[in-house]
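Quick one, C-alpha cells below. Sequence please?
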C-alpha cells in the first residue's frame, strides 16, 4: 500500500506557507503561460486543484472576469485567504470525495499535485471527469529523477540527498518522475496534446529553486533520513550547497502539459478511419 498522506502533511505552518509562497514566486510565470496557451479568458469556468496559497486562483479570477467562475480546491484550505481571493469559491476537501458535477469546467489546472499521491491515476481521472467536452487540462508535475550536481564543494552530499528524495517518494508508492509520464498518460485517455514544455533549470546556489528545496529538506528531514541513504551531515551539506553561489546543480525538472478533452465520445461501434 502506498502512503496516501500528502508529502508535507504535518509541516510547521509558517514554514509551509513560506514554501508555498516561494513556489508561487518561482512557478507562477510558467503556469500563467500554460493557462494562456489553453485559451483561458473571459467567461471561462475554471477549477484549480491543490490551490496552495491561492495565487493562480486569484489570477484566474482576474482573467475570466465577472462572467467567469473560479473554484479552488485544497485538502488543506487554511492557506487560502478569502479576503484576498475575490471571485474565487474555496472548497476544502479531496476532489475524489466531492460532487463537482461532471463535465462542468472549461479548464482544470493542477501544479505539483499528482506527485504527492500514489493514487495519481484515479485523481487524474476525477479531474478529467470535471472537464467539459472540448475543455483543456493544464497539468504541471515535477521530475525529481532529473536532479544532478554540476559543481560545488558539497556536491557528494547534494547527490546523496537527491537519491533520498527519489527513495522517499518511491517508498510511499509515489512516482518521483511523474512529470515525464504525463503526456503518455493523457494520450492514453484520449486527450489531444496541444503543448508540452519541460524545464530543467541548472541553478546556482541561492537560486529560488535551491532555496525552495533547501526549505523542503528541513521540513522533510525525518522522511529523508528514514530512507537510510543519508546522514545529518549530508543534510547539512545539502543546505550549504543550496546556499553556495559557487555551487551549481539541477534540483528537479518540471513538465507542463496542455491537453484537450475530446469534444464528444463516439458511440459504441462507430466507424473509425484508424480501426482495423
Amino acid at each position: 500500500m502506498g502512503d496516501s498522506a500528502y508529502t508535507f502533511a504535518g509541516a510547521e505552518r509558517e514554514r509551509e506557507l513560506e514554501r508555498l509562497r516561494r513556489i508561487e514566486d518561482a512557478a507562477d510565470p510558467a503556469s500563467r503561460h500554460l493557462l494562456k496557451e489553453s485559451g483561458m479568458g473571459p467567461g471561462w469556468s475554471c477549477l484549480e486543484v491543490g490551490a496552495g496559497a491561492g495565487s493562480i486562483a486569484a489570477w484566474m479570477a482576474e482573467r475570466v472576469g465577472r462572467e467567469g467562475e473560479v473554484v479552488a480546491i485544497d485538502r488543506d484550505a487554511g492557506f487560502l485567504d478569502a479576503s484576498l481571493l475575490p471571485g474565487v469559491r474555496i472548497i476544502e476537501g479531496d476532489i475524489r470525495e466531492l460532487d463537482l458535477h461532471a463535465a462542468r469546467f472549461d479548464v482544470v489546472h493542477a501544479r505539483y499535485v499528482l506527485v504527492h499521491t500514489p493514487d495519481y491515476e484515479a485523481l487524474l481521472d476525477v479531474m478529467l471527469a470535471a472537464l467539459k467536452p472540448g475543455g483543456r487540462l493544464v497539468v504541471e508535475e515535477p521530475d525529481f529523477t532529473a536532479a544532478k550536481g554540476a559543481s560545488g564543494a558539497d556536491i557528494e552530499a547534494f547527490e546523496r540527498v537527491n537519491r533520498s528524495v527519489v527513495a522517499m517518494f518511491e517508498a510511499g508508492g509515489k512516482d518521483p518522475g511523474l512529470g515525464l509520464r504525463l503526456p503518455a498518460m493523457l494520450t492514453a485517455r484520449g486527450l489531444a496534446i496541444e503543448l508540452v514544455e519541460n524545464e530543467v533549470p541548472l541553478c546556482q546556489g541561492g537560486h529560488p529553486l535551491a532555496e525552495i528545496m533547501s526549505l523542503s529538506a528541513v521540513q522533510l528531514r525525518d522522511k529523508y533520513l528514514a530512507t537510510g541513504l543519508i546522514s545529518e551531515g549530508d543534510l547539512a551539506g545539502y543546505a550549504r550547497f543550496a546556499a553556495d553561489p559557487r555551487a551549481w546543480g539541477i534540483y528537479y525538472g518540471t513538465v507542463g502539459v496542455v491537453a484537450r478533452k475530446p469534444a464528444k465520445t463516439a458511440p459504441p461501434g462507430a466507424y473509425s478511419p484508424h480501426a482495423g
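The first strand starts at residue 45 and ends at 49. The helical segments are 13-37, 55-64, 120-129, 155-171, 178-188, 208-219, 221-226, 232-243.
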